[in-house]
Specification:
55% helix, mainly alpha, 7 helices, single chain, 177 residues
Length: 177
């Protein structure tokens, strides 16, 4: 007896061919519309998938760093006393090191206020004016901050505090202080 096996035909689906009557420009327009729809879907999916991630703006000064060496030369001093003091304090932190939790640490590194204090050379009025401009500069960027020491101690590295000291020097210069 002869056994016959039924033949099973499998259908394969190929991508639909574009209508033959369309010009190249019309086909490109259709592909462009399809790709735009896919990109819009991807953008919505990205927004949904990343909505829970809390992000803030990134300052370029935080992303671009340079090696800090004692060979750094101080900038041309500002003509105003408070701005020049803030510049000197900034340079001191660049060359001598930054610390948190103390005015001066065991290695000689200083916090923001420690650098201002040593560069003021005992002139408490100049020191107070510099600290006030620095606090104003910090509050312009970060909102309600209690004090310069609390701002300094809230950071794990000196990058942001140093940037704020530099901005304060520019602010003091612009104010003629």
């Amino acid at each position: 007896m002869t056994h016959t096996h039924p033949t099973v035909e499998t259908a394969t689906t190929a991508a639909p061919a574009p209508p033959a009557g369309l010009s190249l420009e019309e086909r490109l327009t259709l592909v462009n519309a399809a790709m735009t729809a896919r990109l819009d879907e991807a953008a919505v999916a990205y927004e949904v998938n990343t909505a829970h991630i809390d992000t803030g703006p990134v300052a370029l000064a935080d992303a671009v760093t340079l090696p800090l060496t004692p060979m750094l030369q101080p900038p041309e001093p500002c003509p105003t006393p408070v701005a020049a003091l803030l510049q000197r304090a900034h340079h001191r932190l660049l060359t001598g090191g930054w610390c948190s939790g103390a005015l001066v640490d065991e290695d000689g590194a200083r916090c923001l206020l420690g650098a201002i204090r040593i560069e003021a050379g005992g002139d408490s009025g100049l020191e107070a004016n510099a600290a006030a401009v620095l606090l104003d500069s910090i509050r312009r960027t970060f909102g309600d901050v209690d004090s310069v020491p609390s701002f300094n101690d809230a950071h794990g590295t000196g990058r942001v505090p140093l940037r704020m000291l530099d901005q304060a020097a520019h602010l003091a210069d612009a104010r003629g202080l």
